[in-house]
Prior knowledge:
Layout: E1 6-10, E2 20-23, E3 36-41, E4 44-54, E5 65-66, E6 69-70, H1 79-91, H2 96-103, H3 106-109, H4 136-146, E7 154-159, H5 165-178, E8 182-186, H6 193-203, E9 208-211, H7 217-228, E10 234-237, E11 249-255, H8 272-283, E12 287-291, H9 296-303, E13 308-312, E14 323-328, H10 340-351, E15 355-359, E16 368-371, E17 388-390, E18 395-397, E19 404-406, E20 419-422, H11 426-436, E21 442-445, H12 455-464, E22 470-473, H13 475-478, E23 486-491, H14 505-517, E24 528-533, H15 539-563, E25 570-578, H16 582-598, E26 604-616, E27 619-628, H17 631-645, E28 655-660
Parallel strand pairs: 2-5, 7-12, 7-13, 8-10, 8-11, 9-10, 11-12, 14-24, 15-22, 15-23, 21-22, 23-24
Antiparallel strand pairs: 1-2, 1-4, 3-4, 3-6, 16-20, 17-18, 18-19, 25-27, 25-28, 26-27
Amino acid sequence: MTKPRILKVAIPAVPFFKLFEYLAPENSQNLQAGIRLEVPFGNRSKIAFLIATSIESDYPIEKLKLITRIIDDVPLLAEIDLKLLHWVAGYYHHPIGEVMSTAFPVALRQGKEAVIKKLPKLIEVETKTSQLICNDAQQNAIYKISATLGEFNIFVLDGVTGSGKTEVYMQLIQTVLDRNQQVLVLVPEITLTPQLQQRFQARFSTPIAISHSKLTDLQRKNTWLLMQSGACSLLLGTRSALFTPLPKIGLIILDEEHDSSFKQQEGFRFSARDVAVMRGKLANVPVILGSATPSLESLYNVKQHRYQHLSLPERAGNALPPLVQILDIRQQKLKEGLSAKLLEEMTTTLAKGEQVLLFLNRRGFAPTLICDDCGWVARCIHCDANLVIHRNKNLLRCHHCGTEHRLISTCPACQSPDLISLGLGTERLESVLTRLFTDKVVLRLDRDSTQKKGALDDFLAQIHAGAAHIILGTQLLAKGHHFPNVTLVAILDVDSGLFSTDFHSGEKLAQLIVQVSGRAGRELKQGKVLLQTRQPEHPLLTELLRDGYAKFAALALAEREMAGLPPFSYQALLRAHHENEELPQTFLQAVAALAQSLNEQNVQVLGAIPAPMARRAGQYRFQLLFQHTNRTTLHHLLRQLMPQILTLKLAAKVRWSLDVDPVDLF
Ligand code: ADP
Ligand code: ZN
Ligand code: ZN
């Protein structure tokens, strides 16, 4: 029999959907799918992944080039990993080469040798904390999930903030570790890894591998190989850790499953949550999706009996739920965004030696610089956006493209010195709080203040040590943190979330309110939450406060059903941009025409329309939305369409990408 010498390989960063063919060296052994190879490509050489071998080629054999070298003797990925990657490439209609490359840490993508250079000393804690005695709801969850180890099942662990979800995870992890299996724990944000890492270290005697984008290439490679070789059993990481090979996988946990950070928003746009579910299915292991505010998709899947619902309705131990109140700020004189009532509550709380947390989702000093005399506004020349004032750095900065200018003191249009900083950002709030509460320590936590390595850890340590009294911050604060001495929480600007055009915005605002509220009074002292709004009768707020998140979610789902929106339909968004305004539009119109010619099942094709931010970083942005009530129908069309798009001339000229199950239409 002839030996298969034709190698079909995937090459990352080449945006082609096809595989490339090469010849194996005459004397080589049978090569296995999944190994890395080095191949000549144009006048360079590239790292490629072997997908399949064959004895035949579509091309004349003499035209095929010989590979340069074989990097791995045996594949670093198991068959099941390859299966997952193939599924993912198909589902997201993304080139397999790029998908494969996502699965590897950078060092291995570059062809480095797959050996562990340095074993980690992650730190040995002498005495381990013991398991807590669980309440009935926790016990029930642990019982139900442990009964299905070794089978595929998806559980939505729907537990109010502070209900002891982490304790449930830890007891289950212990059981899986005792079975000599591996556990994958995913969190949405890097900032959430340290506290979970600490709790795991205090509990488990097994080493814990950490994987996120802030580690060095060497660290990530080591972590990857430790898990891949089975030397380490517990992996904690962000969405980039999802594809780490785990030969002995026994359980997958996704904490804060509702968080849109689980969706990769650039390049290969995958949902770590949905892929984790598929991974659990292929590996035959349970998947736990934990949250105090489960996504509407997951709740819908519960309703459809695809996911199992486990609820932890009460805070664990003796902690009480926070009191949430609407603070009507209509016709109130606000002091830099703070109402008199809020200031009074803050004073009382601080006097008791307790901490206050203020949430404002806007970085910088103020979002707008406007001339009082002629109305000139500082705009970004590259984007449809205002420049944000960053007074600490003496800058005007665009939050969309990063353009920076020195802060000016006279109007460039009329030379007036009367420039006004309009609106409120975290920097401005910080300065006013420092002035109002002179004997208190104010700590600002946002992307600007936590740039430096270790800064966030320092801040969190200060909060825990009680060294900071007033904590203010953005999104960063909303997620999963546990601050026992915070008893007053306020959301300063609820209204900005009420009027977005994106249909996801109601769900996101409700989640934010519940999550931020969940930072209050997590131990013995009851917490209070104040929502400053000029829309005190807005149904989203009144229903959420009166009936809670579950009722809100049920209503929101009913609205989505009536409107035929996801999860009652499926969407894919084709985005295109170019510095020439006409090209992306013409391109998407051509795609729409192609789609219509293939479209037998009436998939809705909407557009091309300008993106909500029509110009960004000098690029004109347009989009085309595909929608259908049947997922298979939608994907059938996309599968036929994608190769045809590549035949369009403009496909090579404009930058474009497909986003399957988009989480925002931006
Ligand atoms: P969640 O992850 O749901 O927000 P945590 O697991 O962080 O909640 O638990 C909140 C607090 O309650 C923690 O201090 C934890 O130690 C404590 N806790 C959890 N379960 C119990 C229990 N069964 N009895 C007493 N305290 C508990
Ligand atoms: Zn002016
Ligand atoms: Zn800009």
